[in-house]
Amino acid sequence: MYKPLPDSLTLKPSGIHGLGLFTTKEIGEGTNLGMSHLEIEDKIIRTPLGGFINHTKDANCAKVELRMTNGKFNYKKWNLVTLQDIKEGEELTIRDMFLNRWNTGALTIKQSGINGLGLFTERDKSKGTDFGTSHYKIEDTIIRTSLGGFINHSNDPNCVKVELRMTNEKFNYKKWKLIASQDTKEGEELTVRYTFYKV
């Protein structure tokens, strides 16, 4: 089953900004926690891991840049690596060179009755609302953004994923927008019918 975060991490309210990324157990120095950011063309995409990590000058993590090259694609990605031993319950932080923050327009992450953490509205949203890009597909890899990383499956969903094919001289890839398929009330969990993963 897909998990948006490693088992050692969770989201909680942060004293720095909004929601933050916190440890659920001790993590050793030099631990590679996975991909936090991806650059496609000139756009920086935050994964669920990178979408909620906050900035401090005295950071306990760093983004390590990896350049990915093959015959079709040249792109960059960044993995999140710990700079020191981190205690259980401590917030992970980085010196953030990317200024964009997770911003989905009146959505938040909370405990879900469906599975783990879920994506919830903070105010009423009308049918047809575009919440933003939830997924990308590069070659055979599906990448969830911080928006798509926490939306749960339902057989009776209130959102749909709309596929867009993106083409230029360098890249051919797909992305999916998350669109409300019905009016949703404040505090309601957003759901989709999973098509990329087994439920």
Short description:
0% of the residues lie in helices and 46% in strands. It has 199 residues and is mostly beta strands. A hairpin with a 2-residue loop joins β3 and β4 (43-46).
Please give the domain count. 2
CATH architecture of the largest domain: Beta Complex
- Gyration radius, to the nearest Å? 17 Å
**N-to-C series of helices and strands:** EEEEEEEEEEEEEEEE
What does this structure look like?
It is built from no helices and 16 strands. With 199 residues, the protein is mainly β. It has two domains: 86 residues, SET domain (Beta-clip-like); 86 residues, SET domain (Beta-clip-like, Beta Complex). A four-stranded antiparallel beta sheet has the order 4-3-7-6, with no helix packed on it. A four-stranded mixed beta sheet has the order 9-10-16-13, with no helix packed on it. Strands 12-11-15-14 form a four-stranded antiparallel beta sheet, with no helix packed on it. A hairpin with a 2-residue loop joins strand 11 and strand 12. The mean pLDDT is 84.
What distinguishing features does this structure have?
199 residues; mainly beta; Beta-clip-like; 4-stranded antiparallel sheet; 4-stranded mixed sheet; globular
Please describe the topology of this protein.
Blueprint: E1 9-13, E2 19-23, E3 32-40, E4 43-46, E5 54-55, E6 61-69, E7 74-82, E8 93-94, E9 107-111, E10 117-121, E11 130-138, E12 141-144, E13 152-153, E14 159-167, E15 172-180, E16 189-192
Parallel strand pairs: 5-8, 13-16
Antiparallel strand pairs: 1-2, 3-4, 3-7, 6-7, 9-10, 10-16, 11-12, 11-15, 14-15
